[in-house]
Write a structure and sequence with these properties.
Elements lengths: L6 H16 L4 E4 L4 E6 L3 H11 L8 E3 L3 H7 E2 L4 H7 L4 E7 L13 E5 L4 H10 L3 E5 L23 E2 L18 E4 L5 E6 L4 H11 L3 E2 L6
């Protein structure tokens, strides 16, 4: 589990991050795979700010980070067994499903789908639960540049961020797979799954989908 922000400062870090997010700011956060940029998914101005500071194409979707599996049913039309969600979440996966009307229409307006993340990271789960709403989440780097496993690697973005939460080195610096980000899986078609991005957990994820739940692989595309 996540260590540092030291437990003593954990609550203060959470409170500070929630306050900034509620004010429409963009905050850098540690996750189970990479450092990310988070903002309130309900705040259209904050969504625009994320695209602007990353230099990201507005045709590329942002994922939504939630605090618990039960929240997925509020923001998505779930067409897989609840056990499947609980087997994969929290974890280094992004599950793409049909979005519900609850999400801000300015979030990925070009697609009826949305990618859901519940990172296997104590700070992020606490943050999402304390914030009590969906967070838009993307990697903390300029578009097309390498993803970040520590805060120094996205130093260029610091001046444009309201808060940077330093959770230390992600993945202990051992595993290059971490830098691949989460495994992105399309679950929007009943009985099938499509791998949109192999990411860092491809084998374990496909084993669960195929062997335990009998889903069939299909070609899929997020866009």
């Amino acid at each position: 589990q996540a260590a540092s922000p030291e437990r003593a400062g954990w609550t203060e870090a959470l409170r500070a991050a929630v306050a900034e997010l509620r004010a429409g700011a963009v905050v850098a956060v540690p996750t189970d795979t990479l450092y990310g940029l988070a903002c309130a998914a309900s705040c259209s101005a904050a969504l625009r700010a994320v695209y602007r500071l990353k230099g990201r194409s507005e045709a590329k979707p942002l994922a939504v980070c939630l605090g618990r599996v039960a929240d997925v049913y509020r923001y998505c039309r779930v067409r897989v067994p609840e056990g499947l969600l609980k087997d994969l979440l929290p974890g280094p996966v992004t599950l793409v499903m049909e979005r519900s009307e609850e999400l801000n229409k300015d979030l990925n307006p070009f697609t009826p789908l949305v990618g859901i993340r519940i990172p296997d990271h104590a700070f992020m789960q606490d943050l999402a639960q304390m914030f009590e709403g969906p967070l838009a989440l993307t990697s903390a780097n300029l578009s097309s540049q390498a993803s970040s496993l520590n805060v120094e690697e996205f130093r260029d973005l610091w001046p444009q961020l309201s808060l940077v939460i330093d959770g230390g080195q992600i993945g202990g610096g051992q595993s290059p797979e971490c830098r691949l980000g989460s495994t992105v899986v399309d679950l929007s078609v009943p009985g099938k799954f499509g791998i949109i991005r192999p990411g860092c957990a491809l084998e374990s994820t496909t084993a669960i989908l195929q062997q335990k739940y009998g889903l069939l692989p299909s070609h899929a595309s997020y866009l």
